[in-house]
Amino acid sequence: MSRPRTLGELRTAVSGDRVSVKEEMRRNLLRKLEGKEPLFPGVLGYEDSVIPQIANAVLSKHNMILLGLRGQAKSRLMRSLTGLLDPEIPAVAGCEIGDDPFRPLCRSCRDRIAKDGDATAIVWLKPDDRYVEKLATPDVTIADIIGDVDPIRAARGGFDLASELTMHYGLLPRAHRGIFALNELPDLAGRIQVGLFNILQEGDVQIKGYPVRLPVDVCMVFTANPEDYTARGKIITPLKDRIGSEIRTHYPTTLEHGVAITAQEAWTEREADLVLPRYVREVVEGIAFAARRNKKIDRHSGVSQRLPISALENAVSNAERRALRAGELPIVPRISDIYAALPSLTGKFELEYEGELMGAENLARELIREAAGEVFSVHMGAVELGQVVSFFEGGGTLRIREDSSSSEILGQLEQIPEVLAHVQLLGAKPEDPAPLRAAAGEFVLEGLWAQRKIGRSDDRGFVAVERPRSDVELDLERLERLRKLKKQVN
């Protein structure tokens, strides 16, 4: 059966009873809960924290604000709310605010229905048509959000400026019968925040110059950084009081959640065969966890989940470039590829004073080392690698270049006792291709260096760790220097 295209067809097909957008969202949410359907597909790590709070806000028919640092999926959550809207609803064709054909708000629609009656054209709005999003910036005006007089429209139509037909509707009225989302609410000027009072409390807006109040039907969702939201002067207290639910977002609480989110969001599908070891994913994710607890990084700014996503993409690209030059498959990212991804790390965090002194690149290298050490402890912490350490303590060295082929690396690793004997714990079997085994062997050395069991220098590669000398050794060294000096004088 075709959908109604005129008001007359709509009258015979459906009843004129319509529920508010908040009631519509509540009804669809209840249906999803009863059917055990996923509420926000693609949003991971919030199943037991944020999502239940959003569900409670929708069931309570609240306007809400999502408080969280950057990169915590606030925008995705807001846009996912369209999944709680009906698949389509009727509206007056050509209406700026998507008016309900049975209860039109704007003067233009009322006049058209009075003139055309049942022949009035009808269109059908999908959920995305009913979602309006705005980034709050200091230059946003009340006309942008609420509306204003449009003198050009008045001149072209020959209307008096007092006529409702000269209204220019802002973004909020244009979200009528839908969701209005405002990103970074504290960046909105105070006088503009005042303009939101009526819609949040009384459910209507008044456009400047007209003694007309529009009962706009809208669900409002905001986002903000907690620091800005609670700072005096950033947000007007009466506005905070009118927002029904305040929901705090967060970064992934476990490494597993973080790895799953990064795996979902990062572009790692390449034309050639790619194998991405689990330990590489965990090291990349561990960098973000290490950065979030590092005192040299500004915690109030946060470390976005985009850091591991960008770093993983960059590491895979470096491995892809090396594999193409060496003519080897599959593509297997190594720990050295993560170091090559430094450009995707250094711009993702704000530094404290100590961090500025250290430098972003040096700090990023320390974060990689810390993450590698933690992942190494999980996978190989119980493995005895004393022979590997003894090799370096006996004067052995191993320099692995970033662009070395897998066969070259394996040839070097085979000179070190036991280094390849336990790589099965990392998922690399003896019959696996060389790139997999080379990547695992390199990670073993990186893990030992991260735990300070072996050393590493820029010119010689992996070496024996420098053992702190005792006072007795230092005294003997000084005596030896004095003895040599006396011999030269004599």
Structure overview:
- The chain is elongated and about 115 Å long.
- The chain has 490 residues and is an alpha/beta fold.
- The mean pLDDT is 87.
- The protein has 22 helices and 13 strands.
- The longest helix has 21 residues, at 306-326.
- The strands form five sheets. It has a five-stranded parallel β-sheet. It has a two-stranded antiparallel ribbon with strand order 2-3. Strands 5-6 form a two-stranded antiparallel sheet.
- It has two domains: 7-248, Rossmann fold; 255-463.
Unreliable stretches, pLDDT < 50, 5 or more residues?
Answer: none
- Give the count of structural domains: 2
* Main sheet: strand order: 4-7-10-1-11
**Approximate strand percentage:** 5-15%
Structural class: alpha/beta
- Can you give the mean pLDDT? 87
CATH domain fold name of the largest domain: Rossmann fold
Which assembly state applies to the chains in this document? single chain
Q: What is the name of the CATH superfamily of the largest domain?
A: P-loop containing nucleotide triphosphate hydrolases
* Overall body shape: elongated
Helix content: 40-55%
Architecture of the largest domain in CATH?
3-Layer(aba) Sandwich
Taking the alpha carbons of the first and last residues, their distance comes to 114 Å
